[in-house]
Amino acid sequence: MGHGFANITVRGQTQNTLLNYLKKHQRNAYVSPKVNNFVVVYDEDSEFDLEKLSNLSLQISGDFSCVAFSIVTYDESWFAYDLYENGNLRDEYCSSGEDLFPEGGDAQKLCTILGAKSSINRIRPILREPTTETVYLFASQRHKNLVRELGLPTWSTYIIGGYRDIKEEEIDAVVFDEDGFPDVEATLSMLKNTND
Known about the structure:
The structure is a single chain. 36% of the residues lie in helices and 22% in strands. It is built from 8 helices and 8 strands; from the N terminus they run βαββαββββααααααβ. The chain has an 8-stranded antiparallel sheet with strand order 7-6-5-4-1-3-2-8, with helices on both faces.
């Protein structure tokens, strides 16, 4: 069985603002530091429940009048996202639809809302390429390419993953070194937990 995780990248909020918000709503979650105006939320309850993930993303987006980009990968076979803006679903995507062709995903809308208009032409093939052994055998590769082109923080990729990965410290130090992260211990210390 492969690796799966979920998280929510929030635009325009701070680590402490989201931490206090999640505490107020009695969520068990980790929150990343702010990078390039983005903060990543790793929520325990929505890790493997798409409905809960969507509901939390919608709630954050509506309550803060901001953008929330929730992603989920499962067993390296598929990657999906929902994009919320001001409490409204603006775009959704799944990498493995009928006959392994992706479904949904509007590159122009995605890039415009996330502030990466210059990347539209590079994002389209990432979203449209079929899931095959030659291009996108692994969902994490599609997600990593999308994050890079959108200018999102590496905190939202498989390097950190989701709540379970952080809690169990299942983070590969070699991967961190390759992507310019500090060591695992230093990286984990930059995350804040709602239970602390």
